[in-house]
């Protein structure tokens, strides 16, 4: 009987805890944009957060508050509408100084002055917020406050609504509901914060690719190239889905704007931002197309396949390898362009090893990604080539790195489990039917020189030169195996 009573008592408490952590509701008002402000009203449940809420920030020496610097006129009210005392604790965190905890309505303005700060330390303006003649770009980080709890994924039922000036629209990666300008966030709070949106009178284009709903938000100078973007994204999404044997997310937003500083891309959970400097045409596609394809492949390798500790060589290097070979397989780049791209990869690796005397292993190099950029991307890409060739050799070209990607996706992507190096080794072993531990010991955690000349020769390509001057060409009289490997990797 006592047990029964406890159960009864325990149940409402349990339900209460569930409800407490379950919802977050945001209303964004863009009608004050001409006064350089966006107004945000957030209904947050803060019991578990001990009445603290925060904004994810990218502080720098010059701007220690990062994005929080642009938060103005912040207030908090309890459920009865009574104003609460707020204290800023620094690093983008606030505390409501109230005797009781529970639900609060937090309101604030975001001043649209992000361009007055330098954001190079966190990847540039498209990791934060920027203005264009058509409207406003934001990452979720720069707009939304979140309860200060360790597991943001516990906050489900997240919704966002927009109040917009006339002729404006909101392009978001979230799911439209019946109500106008109202969205529910797929999954949880992390998909609110780690995404980007564009709000304005820009051009929007939606296309369906199988399970994928692709939404483009294009600045007016990018609108004439709409078909160039679709012509790239369609084959890349289709071929990546084929490699991984499945696709992660159904709705995907791509924001493309002109930029006078650089061509760059930033990938988020279900969206990405591309800024382009200079002309958009077939020639420049080698540049922006690579970034767009690379960031899209991160939807699989990076945002669905997530490592336990840093495995940047696999996340970045293998993504770059896949980018280059899929761009070739889909005929977006031709064979000479592939050679050129791969020559650059080898050059970077050689410069780092021989001229800069960088002796870090490819895996260690990821601890300082920016400083060891060439080893993480270039070295990682050469490891991918080597592993691809080793698996093809072991299986008479029946299996390849494609199968490792598919195996990783099946075991860790679909199950939302974080992977480790030993998992990549186990899946490579099972795909190849051989023990490839030595390969990872030598080239990933060890510092043995990757025999690039041999690996390229295995696919019928000849490498000449040394240090920064290297040249790839089609080898003379390739045998049947070399031709099969090349066909398998490049589709040529
Ligand atoms: Zn990347």
TrEMBL record:
Cited InterPro entries: Peptidase_M4/M1_CTD_sf, Peptidase_M61_catalytic, Peptidase_M61_N
Signal peptide interval: 1-19
Domain Peptidase M61 N-terminal: 25-185
Domain of life: Bacteria
Keyword annotations: Signal
Every Peptidase M61 catalytic domain range: 291-368
Protein name per UniProt: Peptidase M61 catalytic domain-containing protein
Taxonomic placement: Bacteria, Pseudomonadati, Bacteroidota, Flavobacteriia, Flavobacteriales
């Amino acid at each position: 009987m006592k047990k029964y009573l406890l159960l009864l008592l325990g149940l409402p408490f349990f339900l209460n805890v569930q409800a407490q952590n379950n919802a977050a509701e945001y209303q964004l008002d863009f009608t004050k944009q001409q006064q350089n402000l966006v107004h945000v009203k957030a209904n947050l449940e803060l019991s578990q957060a001990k009445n603290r809420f925060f904004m994810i920030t990218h502080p720098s020496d010059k701007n220690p508050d990062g994005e929080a610097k642009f938060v103005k006129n912040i207030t908090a009210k309890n459920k009865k509408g009574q104003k609460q005392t707020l204290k800023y604790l620094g690093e983008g965190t606030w505390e409501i100084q109230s005797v009781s905890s529970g639900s609060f309505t937090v309101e604030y303005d975001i001043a649209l002055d992000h361009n007055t700060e330098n954001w190079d330390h966190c990847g540039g303006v498209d990791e934060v917020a920027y203005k264009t003649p058509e409207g406003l770009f934001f990452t979720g980080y720069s707009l939304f406050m979140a309860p200060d709890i360790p597991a943001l994924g516990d906050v489900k039922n997240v919704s966002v609504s927009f109040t917009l000036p006339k002729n404006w629209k909101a392009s978001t990666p979230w799911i439209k509901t019946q109500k106008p300008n109202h969205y529910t966030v797929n999954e949880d709070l992390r998909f609110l914060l780690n995404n980007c949106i564009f709000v304005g009178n820009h051009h929007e284009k939606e296309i369906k690719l199988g399970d994928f709903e692709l939404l483009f938000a294009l600045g007016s100078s990018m609108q004439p190239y709409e078909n160039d973007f679709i012509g790239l994204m369609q084959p890349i999404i289709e071929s990546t889905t084929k490699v991984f044997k499945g696709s992660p997310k159904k709705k995907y937003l791509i924001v493309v704007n002109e930029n006078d500083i650089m061509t760059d891309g930033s990938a988020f959970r279900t969206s990405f931002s591309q800024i382009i400097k200079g002309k958009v045409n077939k020639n420049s596609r080698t540049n922006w197309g690579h970034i767009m394809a690379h960031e899209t492949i991160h939807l699989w390798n990076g945002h669905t396949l997530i490592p336990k500790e840093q495995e940047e060589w696999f996340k970045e290097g293998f993504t770059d390898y896949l980018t280059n070979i899929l761009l070739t397989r889909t005929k977006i780049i031709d064979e000479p362009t592939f050679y050129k791209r791969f020559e650059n990869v080898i050059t970077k690796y050689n410069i780092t090893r021989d001229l800069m005397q960088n002796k870090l292993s490819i895996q260690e190099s990821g601890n300082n990604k920016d400083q060891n950029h060439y080893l993480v991307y270039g070295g990682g890409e050469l490891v991918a080539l080597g592993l691809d060739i080793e698996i093809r050799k072991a299986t008479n070209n029946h299996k390849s790195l494609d199968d490792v990607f598919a195996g990783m996706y099946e075991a860790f992507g679909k199950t939302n489990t974080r992977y480790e190096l030993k998992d990549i080794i186990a899946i490579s072993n099972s795909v190849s039917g051989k023990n490839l531990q030595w390969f990872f010991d030598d080239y990933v955690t060890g510092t043995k020189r990757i025999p690039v000349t041999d690996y390229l020769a295995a696919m019928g390509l000849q490498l000449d030169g040394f240090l920064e001057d290297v040249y790839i060409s089609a080898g003379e009289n390739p045998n049947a195996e070399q031709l099969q490997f090349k066909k398998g990797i490049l589709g040529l």
